[in-house]
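Continuing the series of single-chain predictions for the mutant panel. This is the parent chain; the variants come on the following pages.
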Amino acid sequence: MSINRVIISGNLTRDPELRSTASGMPVLGFGVAVNDRRKNQQTGEWEDYPNFIDCTMFGARAQSLSRYLTKGTKVSIEGKLRWSQWERDGQKRSKIEVIVDELEFMSSRNDGSANTSYGSNDYAAPAADSMQAPSLDASSVYDEDIPF
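Parent structure:
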């Protein structure tokens, strides 16, 4: 048995690029910077070292999210790793990228407080203004008719 799952959180390094396959399926490509902390052996201080991760998302939600993602957006991503290899100018090249299954905004455009998740069953991102939790009072949350 093998498991291929990855979760990363970071900021987009560039504006996403929306393309389409020959069959018309939307493909969204973007990069995410994820910091790694290491102790500098010479100074004894902890330092951040960036890792730059290429990410790819497919389908209708990729097309929808392309309107909301911009360079610097803080996101959390869940997906799987995919290795690819090609040849350019006689040199073999390869890379590992994340194929995105779930994407969550870690801050809203307005105030930085809303977390919004877009997963396998989500196809359109709501406007940032509409991302407010509904107000609930105690009587709507607790039902006295429940026997336990």
